[in-house]
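2024-03-11 09:14:02 DEBUG pipeline.ingest accepted 1 chain
2024-03-11 09:14:02 DEBUG pipeline.ingest length=432
2024-03-11 09:14:03 DEBUG pipeline.predict start
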Amino acid sequence: MRGKQVAFGLVTAFLVVAGCAGPQPAPARPGPLAGQTIEVLAVWSDEEQAAFERVLDVFEQRTGATVTYVSGGDEVPTVLATRLAGGSPPDVAGVAQPALVRTLARAGSLVPLDPSTESVIDAQFAPVWKELGTVDGELYGFVFKAANKSTVWYDAGQLGPGFVPPRTWDEFVETLRKLSDTGRTPLSVGGADGWTLTDWFENVYLQTAGGAMYDRLARHEISWTDPSVRTALQTLGRVFRPEYLPGGISSALQTEFTESVVDVFGADPKASIVFEADFVAGAIAESTPARVGADARVFPFPRIGPTSSVVSGGDTLVALTDEPGTKALMQFLASSEAASIWAAQGGFVSPNRQVALDEYPDDSTRQIAEELVGADNLRFDMSDLMPSALGATRGDGFWRAMQDYLADPAQVDRILAELEAEATAAYEEGDS
């Protein structure tokens, strides 16, 4: 055990010294973790996987450790459950749902972060981010790759040089109305993916009801039939109008997220505005000829309340083993330097407030990152805070309720009553 403590102390000192000078070349001799292997399981694939592996390369060069990355895609929770059941968990995992982090921690599957890593998080992250990784007073993880889900994207070419992005909800509604009055269908909505609709609701609810009510609804301390929910839906209904959507409501319910982006930035656009998180940039790059920051521009989700509010999502890194290599990697990944390596490559936003804005490759991403880190009122994606049966199931729960509301707002009483019944059952099962 003493040998392991010494090795971890050596790599900690090495990372601190080397971190001051930026990425270093591979050491001339094996590092303090030579011969150790570390496995990381997370959602990232394709370009994201390649970017994350560049981060891991720097860690390997400095320490002599070998890090293997496994992409679980959307099946990370299932893969992780299988690995845990088989007694062979990865050393580190990226988990998108704080609710799952809580479940794993309370089941004894996670290893609390060591004091050195916690000190990095205390110094470089706002307290709200630490709270997200804390379960029953113990810190188990941190958000490495975040999403700013309070962004609205528009095609600058379609709207012209005189377009002024709306700052308030009333201005946003008026913008949509004016575009519609000129014969254009302004707003693309990917309603086939229910999570895009829950993101709409969460932004509106945070601003109309406030942070405290948002927290209570996420924990099911108030009912889904509460008047505050109806108020948010009615506010949202001001933009979910058939004349504002290409093909009307029925078409929006059949449009998936990527298609909604293509409908704005593709070669044959059907609308000029689309709402979703900063990962819209990835869909633009992969599926359209538009250039982020030039053709594709962004403005903050229009204000309804008095302060700036941001709904965030992201992937929380947690440790499942207490090996020296695991501890050293977690400490490195918590650092602003590790985040900056990916930030420079694009397609990434960090909640680490010590990542310099000029590390990001374009003005739009810099703006998105600045709004995320500087938000007065930040909350995590509500659906990811809920039991997965309620908040993350295609065609059911929260996702289905929002699709039903888009389809027929007049049925709001039935929709909310059914959602409340599902929420009651989900929380009684203890899946939170």
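2024-03-11 09:14:41 DEBUG pipeline.report The chain has two domains: 2-143+315-368, 151-310+379-428.
2024-03-11 09:14:41 DEBUG pipeline.predict end
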